[in-house]
Amino acid sequence: MMRMRRTLGGPAAAAAIMSLIVAPAFAQRPAGHYAAGRAVYRKWCAPCHDPGITHPGTHALMTKYKGVKSGVLLEWTDLPASTVKYMVRHGILLMPPFRKTEITDQELDALARFLSRNTPGGR
Ligand code: HEC
Hints:
By secondary structure, the chain is mainly α.
């Protein structure tokens, strides 16, 4: 048993294997699964986070992550739903917090599910 664990190579390999198992599950999501979340994104987040340096959120994240990863939130593969929810309710620097009268808890669930769709285990 010990030798087998060593062969697999620890947590990094385990994560890689998990993503192989999880990835096909994403592909099987029905069309429209993310529609509600995408609509919330378009209304409240796209003006700052859509691709392009003229969008202040994208510009800030390009500067912050210096090419280590994309400045475009939609392309991230390491954005857990919990992070989306925290940032949306609390804001960060230039980004305002959003009230429940603007984005309801239900809308935030859908938004977080949409933005974490490429993050293994992130939904
Ligand atoms: C007024 C512009 C603006 C709007 C609107 C906005 N953001 Fe942001 N957002 C920013 C900026 C600027 C940053 C980067 C802050 C920094 O430099 O740390 C940011 C950062 C973030 C981060 C943190 C990324 C990280 O690793 O630091 C997340 C997640 C995020 N935004 C999600 C959202 C979501 C979801 C919405 C829509 C509900 C949204 N933002 C709306 C400007 C905005």
